[in-house]
Amino acid sequence: MVHPARDGDEGGRPRVLVLRALGLGDLLAGVPALRALRRAYPGHELVLATPAELAPVAAATGAVDRVLPAAAPGRAVPRTLDWTGPPPDVAVDLHGNGPPSHRLLTRLRPRRLLAFAHPETPEVDGPPWYAEEHERERWCRLLRAYGIDADPTDLRLPRPDAPSPAPGAVVLHPGAGAPSR
Fold first, then answer.
1. E-assigned strands of the chain?
2. CATH code at 28?
3. How many domains in the chain?
4. Are the C-beta atoms of 38 and 63 separated by less than 8 Å?
5. Is 161 domain-assigned?
6. Which of the two ends of the chain, N or C, has the fewest CB atoms closer than 10 A to its terminal CB?
7. How would you label 3-42 residue by residue, b for 16+ Cβ within 10 Å and e otherwise?
8. What gap in Å lies between CA 59 and CA 69, rounded to an integer?
9. More confident residue, 109 or 159
10. Quick check: is 175 in a domain?
11. Any domain includes 122
12. What confidence tens digit (pLDDT) does each residue in 32-73 have?
């Protein structure tokens, strides 16, 4: 079970904070990147800033230790994060290409920020953003630019232990409002 991050939970472990405060489809498109981060930082606590209701899906990825509840209307960047304790060792912007998400994360003073470059945040020296790129490939390319091996096909979630409430049903997620998803 993934629990909300709260003061004292870090137990002295360094932390990776990933910002992906969007919806279900966005979280699922980020699964390969989350797993790549888990492999790259096995001794770190991986904290995902995302809507609290996505905690069960975050847990199913096998990559996330804790959820830091974070959301904003529409696709906006949250104004603040309820981060406690020392700054994150690594902050990862899987929310967008900045600058609002860059600035939100840099206010936490991470030792390292992994993010796409943007002309309005020249202090962020990341790879270029390609608007039409599929999101799974985009986030994996971001991590590869920082030397982290990431496979955009690493998507499969484990089958739940509980029996299906609708055996034989097919689930479709019609929420992809952008060609990149």
1. 3-4, 15-19, 45-50, 66-69, 90-93, 112-114
2. 3.40.50.2000
3. 1
4. yes
5. no
6. N
7. eebeeebbeeeebbbbbbbbbebbbbbbbbbbbbbbebbe
8. 14
9. 109
10. no
11. yes
12. 999 999 999 999 999 999 999 999 999 999 999 999 999 988
